[in-house]
Specification:
By secondary structure, the chain is mainly alpha-helical. 67% of the residues lie in helices and 0% in strands.
Length: 117
C-alpha cells in the first residue's frame, strides 16, 4: 500500500483513519514504518499473560480490599483511585481487574487478601 494516504489505507482496511495514524506514528512514522517491525512490536506489547497489578502491588491491593470491606463497588473503587492517585498510574486499576481478581482468577490477589481477615 505504498504511496497511499492514511485515509485511503484506513478505508481499504475498514478501520478509522485515527487508528491507522496512531499505528504509523507508534512504529516509525510515514517514512520509517515497516510492517514486519510493527508486527513484532505489536506482539511484544501484547505479551500475555501480564502480571495482575493487584498481585504485584501490595499497597494497591490493600487499598482495594479496604474499600471492598467498606462495601464499595469495584466501579466506585476504580473511580476513586483514578481521582485520588491521578498522577500515579501504579495506584490505579480498572473495575474489570478488580472483578477478575475476585471472581475469575482461581487464586486472585484480592480473593486471598479479602478472605484472610
Amino acid at each position: 500500500m505504498t504511496g497511499l494516504s492514511l485515509r485511503t489505507i484506513a478505508t481499504q482496511l475498514g478501520r478509522s483513519p485515527s487508528t491507522i495514524s496512531r499505528e504509523v506514528k507508534r512504529n516509525g512514522g510515514v517514512s520509517g514504518y515497516r510492517a514486519s517491525e510493527a508486527d513484532k512490536s505489536a506482539w511484544a506489547r501484547a505479551h500475555r499473560p501480564k502480571p495482575c497489578k493487584l498481585s504485584v502491588s501490595p499497597l494497591l491491593c490493600r487499598v482495594v480490599v479496604e474499600k471492598l470491606k467498606a462495601h464499595w463497588a469495584p466501579e466506585q473503587i476504580a473511580g476513586w483511585l483514578k481521582r485520588t492517585y491521578a498522577g500515579d498510574e501504579s495506584m490505579q486499576v480498572s473495575h474489570e481487574t478488580i472483578y477478575k481478581s475476585l471472581f475469575i482468577q482461581a487464586r486472585g490477589a484480592l480473593k486471598k487478601s479479602f478472605w484472610r481477615t
